[in-house]
Specification:
The protein has 454 residues and is of the alpha/beta class. The chain is 41% helix and 22% strand. The strands form six sheets. Strands 12-13-14-11-10-16-17 form a seven-stranded mixed beta sheet, with helices on both faces. Strands 7-6-5-8-9-20 form a six-stranded mixed beta sheet, with helices on both faces. Helix 8 links the parallel strand 8 and strand 9. The chain is globular and about 75 Å long. The N and C termini lie far apart (63 Å).
């Protein structure tokens, strides 16, 4: 399998991929090794994860460069991912012991009732390319701490980062058979899912997630699906227009818009619509597009070349239906997969750009007359990952956000993830959760203990 730099079109590496035979062998070794890993004291499992964390910190620059080369992420943002990973791992390490310990819930003279937390067993982690360290570590770090073995399939577009992760974990002391990287494209992922695993944790598109759910549902195994979003933001009439525009633009275009929680729809109160749009466009025009390895670059390459056609179709559809293209609007000619940062004003819900996931540097902006209309439009979607409101009025924000059909809501911020809070979605944005203490327990199955004294 050839690994290609999306910014230049050049080949980075040619790697061997797994086959059905090698995947079965990795599964068999993981099944054999998992009980011994689970039997280790948690402190020993945690020591390996702590060492992994330290190795990530030590090799920060190398890992960030590899990430930028293979997915086209601007190097400063790759460094941010590496830095941001460390407190996320620290959270899991700090919370694992008290989250996983048995709980005594009742006791009297003759009976004690306890809740235990057994590991699932051998799980499949089919991960994403846009944040391979964040998304992957949300799964395999707590899964390993909880005593599971992990068959980890990185996205084929982040294979080199996936191989780095496996090497670092093994160097840190996680046995090779307890954490195995499975290398290849979607056919390799499909072969992995045919094995008698105990859980599937997938991050990717709704279409693929729906197929996985249909397959695993018949087998009654733990299935978590972190899928896409069409995340809205409402800008109320009482904001500092320039500050709000800058914040929302960053939320829409960071990581070249290739984030499941990127702002993808903007609704602006009609009384400030024109000044907001002007400030927003001014901000976007300052974003530097170019070489992902250049520290000054803010907009990098589109990782998957076919996504360029998706963005082109959305822009053409919006223009046909009355949107104004205020900047950008087309792919950038030359080497690599680049699309100009694009702002579409006067958008409406007949346009694909306001309904279908863009996953690129394209945003639609729509005027609304009041809060009620904003709420209706924000919820008018098949997705429900995040939603945000910008206003200095906390009560107003809480009223609006309480009605959002989203797993995460933001007041005066967006495109933000915290390890302390669960990450989940409504509707087509998925099922299950990662992060928070719930995101540690999700890699276990509860066991009810009824203990009667003789």
């Amino acid at each position: 399998m050839k690994l290609t730099n999306p910014a230049t079109g050049t080949t980075l590496l040619d790697v061997d991929t797994d086959t059905a035979r090698t995947i079965r062998a990795k599964y068999a070794r993981a099944r054999k090794a998992q009980p011994g890993w689970a039997a280790l004291p948690l402190a020993k499992r945690a020591a390996a994860i702590r060492k992994f964390r330290d190795l990530v910190a030590d090799r920060h620059d190398e890992l960030a460069r590899t990430l930028s080369l293979e997915v086209g992420k601007p190097i400063r943002q790759s460094r941010n991912e590496m830095k941001g990973l460390l407190p996320r791992i620290d959270f899991f390490l700090a919370e694992a012991a008290k989250t996983l310990r048995d709980e005594k819930v009742f006791a009297d003279a003759t009976m004690e009732e306890r809740i235990g937390h057994d590991p699932l067993g051998v799980i499949a982690n089919i991960s994403a390319w846009n944040y391979p360290y964040f998304v992957g570590c949300n799964v395999f770090v707590p899964a390993l701490l909880a005593g599971n073995a992990v068959l980890y399939k990185p996205s084929e577009f982040a294979t080199m980062s996936g191989m780095h992760i496996a090497d670092l974990l093994h160097t840190a002391g996680v046995p090779d058979d307890v954490f195995s990287a499975v290398i290849g494209d979607g056919t390799v992922g499909a072969a992995l899912l045919r094995l008698p695993i105990d859980g599937v944790f997938f991050t990717g598109s709704y279409a693929t997630g729906a197929k996985i759910a249909a397959s695993t549902g018949r087998r009654m195994i733990k299935t978590q699906l972190e899928l896409g979003g069409k995340d809205p933001v409402y800008v109320a009439d009482d904001v500092d227009v320039k500050a709000a525009a800058a914040a929302v633009a960053d939320g829409a275009f960071y990581n070249t818009g290739q984030s499941c929680c990127a702002v993808e729809r903007v609704y602006v109160h009609e009384t400030i619509y024109e000044p907001f749009v002007k400030a927003f466009v001014d901000e976007v025009k300052r974003f530097k597009v170019g070489d992902p390895l250049d520290d000054a670059t803010y907009i990098g390459a589109i990782t998957r070349k076919p996504q360029l056609d998706v963005l082109k179709r959305q822009v053409a559809d919006a223009k046909k239906k009355g949107a104004r293209v205020l900047t950008g609007g087309a792919a950038i000619k030359g080497k690599g997969n680049f699309f100009a940062p694009t702002v579409l004003a006067d958008a409406n819900h007949s346009m694909a750009v306001m309904r279908d996931e863009s996953f690129g540097p394209v945003i639609g902006i729509m005027a609304v007359p009041d809060d009620e209309t904003a709420v209706e439009l924000m919820n008018d979607t098949e997705y429900g990952l995040t939603a945000g409101v910008y206003t200095p009025d906390e009560k107003r924000a809480r009223r609006i956000l309480a009605r959002m059909q989203s797993g995460t809501v933001y007041w005066n911020c967006c495109d933000r993830v915290s390890p302390r809070l669960p990450w989940s979605g409504h509707k087509h944005s998925g099922i299950g959760l990662t992060l928070s203490t719930y995101g540690i327990q999700t890699f276990t199955r509860p066991k009810a203990w009824h203990l009667r004294s003789a």
